[in-house]
Amino acid sequence: MTNPTHATTFRNLHAPGQFLVLPNAWDAGSARLIESAGAAAIATSSAAVAWANGYPDGDALPTALLIRTVEQIVRVINVPLSVDSEGGYSDDPAEVAENIYAIANAGAVGINIEEGSKSPDLLCTKIEAAKRGAQRAGVDLFVNARIDILLQGVVPREQFVEETLARAARYRDAGCDGIFVPLIASAEDIQAVARGIDPLPLNVMAIGGLAPTAELRRLGARRLSAGAGIARAAISLTLRLAEEFLRDGNSSAIYAEVKDKTDINALFRNLPNAGGGAGE
């Protein structure tokens, strides 16, 4: 299911002068819907995929379910797919290589791989393992290394940029293709990190109050992802409508949210295996 053209396309979307916006999906339906809205590529949210399958975020999702999700998404979209692989679903480099091989072999052309609370040394090893696994699958995989300094609070705030750049240099040397810094928000920090990691592209994550695309681009960022934000908004809306419906059977509240005439079935017609069958 690998697609060399998608790998090249996805890499080119990160080139200097480009700015890639990735609304993160969690299953085939959300991915196809996001593609129909005009996305140039699709990314998954590890948290949202885990929740959709009944697991917490944090390397708890069985890899078989992740691979199945990747296969389902690839079947219904015509743009590149990048998969949030959390920490590679193992701290054993050999297992990480196998997991990333399976993700790439299922059709993904990019991954995020994160530090979490673990050491930079371990992530360097995982990046190298991920590249080996992808190479075995025949995929020029775009590896986005996630630096979790702000998420984990591991250094004083005034040391954030310096430590981020130090880690980014190590991950570049290990073979990563991009740097993801969740929660980075100030113009000064974004500009300093983007300049400091150049030519690697900087990925920022949508949070309340973040500057709009034009400003992020001016500051030097090249990728903006929604993370779990869209999924969390969908979950919040679902919970609110369900609570209202259970309380008083409020049908009007539900249909007040159905504001467009999207033909959902049409999104899935004429796709391979659209009718289901033994392979589904």
Q: What do you see in this structure?
A:
Helix 8 runs parallel beside helix 9. With 280 residues, the protein is α/β, with parallel strands linked by helices. It has a 9-stranded parallel β-sheet, with helices on both faces. It is globular, with a radius of gyration of 19 Å. The protein is built from 13 helices and 9 strands. The relative contact order is 0.13.
Outline of the structure:
The protein has 280 residues and is an alpha/beta fold.
Oligomer: single chain
Instruction: Identify low-pLDDT runs.
Output: 274-280
Topology order in helix (H) and strand (E) letters: HEEHEHHEHEHEHHEHEHEHHH
Count of strand segments:
9
State the end-to-end CA separation.
Answer: 15 Å
Structural class: alpha/beta
- Major sheet size, sense and barrel closure: 9 strands, parallel
Mean pLDDT: 93
Categorize the overall geometry.
Answer: globular
Roughly what fraction of the amino acids lie in strands? 5-15%
